[in-house]
UniProtKB/TrEMBL annotation:
<feature type="compositionally biased region" description="Basic and acidic residues">
    <location>
        <begin position="29"/>
        <end position="55"/>
    </location>
</feature>
<feature type="coiled-coil region">
    <location>
        <begin position="173"/>
        <end position="200"/>
    </location>
</feature>
<keyword id="KW-0175">Coiled coil</keyword>
<protein>
    <submittedName>
        <fullName>Uncharacterized protein</fullName>
    </submittedName>
</protein>
<feature type="compositionally biased region" description="Acidic residues">
    <location>
        <begin position="1"/>
        <end position="11"/>
    </location>
</feature>
<feature type="region of interest" description="Disordered">
    <location>
        <begin position="1"/>
        <end position="71"/>
    </location>
</feature>
Length: 391
């Protein structure tokens, strides 16, 4: 039995302990089923959203292999790069225009300020002088205490905007370790509250009725927080010490060492017989089996392997981490992070021309017009006047 379960059991025992006759409430005071149901329903409403998110994460990420969502993650990362590349290009374009104005030595400070006001930002997509809108929109859910953040990019022309429409849901992320620690602190606070209320009851600061009411309230809170703590703790264990991944890793190492033994046997056979085929087989085994498995073992042992440069002492250091921040992050937003819209490009402009009736036999008329072009040109020529000078 865990500490939290023991605490809940103690609260149940506390309710059943008899008090002196003059202070013992009647049986009706303990009949609080309706009140406890209301409290339970309210706490369920607060935790239902979080539990739904947790179960979704358990099914989609923690209990599955990491490569199952690679396609969605790649699409999301590409969209992020595209968004910030456009935003950086937009900001740099504006900054370059400001630098040109600042570099004008012939203008006074006041004149430069006037030139700044005259600057017309160009839309990053259609290049019209209407500007572009880059901002972060927040969708909040106060009852569930969760938010979703959206990266937004739109054309600055509100009346006739171009197709630019980028909407990327960043979700709301949190580190699983931090969540587990928060729930652990929350449970410890509830335990301290129980101790305080027990002392208040013991020294007569509160009546048994109030004590029972407070114990019931705290018991429901402990139950809800314990369930959330267990779920997040399970998620953390699935990432740090996943049984399925551990089994695959052990099988991988077993196969690796079997290949090493086979390689040694081949080299021993070569030494005893002198047959070069053993050497060729050993090279193939090393190239096709041992090297790939060695790389897999390294990547599965350390999620991050990198060389970091230290500017202070001008040295390079090998940095290896068993878990990355990305692995320990969980999306606790209203919806999963996703690319909602990624629209770019310029629509084909339709030129307005005077109304012209095109005959149905346009293909037949066209060559006739072409044949008559020389005649039309001749008809438009001015008549030549012959000048005769008589003596």
């Amino acid at each position: 039995m865990s500490d939290n379960e023991e605490l809940i059991e103690d609260l149940n025992i506390e309710r059943s302990e008899p008090e002196p006759e003059e202070s013992v409430p009647n049986s009706d005071s303990f009949d609080r089923d309706s009140e406890s149901d209301n409290k339970k329903s309210s706490s369920d409403e607060l935790n239902s959203r979080r539990q739904e998110i947790i179960e979704r994460q358990l099914q989609s990420s923690s209990l599955n292999d990491e490569d199952e969502n690679e396609i969605n993650d790649e699409e999301f990362e590409e969209a992020l790069k595209k968004y910030y590349r456009l935003k950086n290009e937009y900001d740099n374009s504006l900054n370059n225009q400001k630098k040109k104005i600042l570099a004008m030595n012939g203008l006074s400070l006041k004149e430069k300020q006037i030139e700044f006001r005259r600057l017309r930002k160009k839309c990053i997509n259609c290049k019209r002088p209407v500007g572009s809108i880059f901002n972060i929109k927040v969708d909040s859910n106060e009852s569930a205490n969760y938010i979703d953040r959206h990266l937004i990019a739109l054309c600055g022309d509100k009346e006739e905007p171009c197709p630019l429409n980028i909407d990327i849901n960043l979700g709301a992320t949190n580190n699983i370790r931090n969540i587990v620690n928060d729930y652990e602190k929350e449970l410890n606070n509830y335990k301290n509250e129980v101790i305080i209320h027990k002392n208040d009851l013991l020294f007569g600061y509160i009546t048994p009725e109030i004590a029972v009411e407070k114990f019931d309230e705290i018991k429901e809170k402990i139950k809800g927080s314990t369930e959330m703590f267990d779920l997040f703790f399970e998620m953390l264990n699935n990432i740090i010490d996943n049984p399925r991944k551990k089994e695959k890793f052990l099988n991988l190492k077993k196969g690796f060492y079997e290949n090493i033994d086979a390689l040694k046997s081949m080299m021993e056979e070569f030494k005893s017989s002198g047959t070069t085929q053993y050497v060729l087989d050993a090279v193939e085994l090393y190239k096709n089996e041992i090297m790939p498995k060695s790389e897999k073992i390294m990547h599965q042992t350390y999620a991050y392997n990198g060389i970091e440069y230290d500017e202070d002492d001008d040295t390079f250091h090998l940095d290896q981490k068993k878990n990355t921040i990305k692995q320990l992050e969980i999306d606790v937003g209203i919806e999963d992070h996703s690319v909602i819209s990624m629209r770019l490009g310029i629509p084909q402009k339709i030129k307005r021309t005077s109304s012209t009736i095109i005959p149905e036999n346009a293909e037949i008329v066209a060559p006739i017009i072409e044949e008559r072009i020389p005649e039309l040109k001749k008809s438009k020529q001015k008549p030549k006047i012959k000048l005769v000078i008589e003596e």
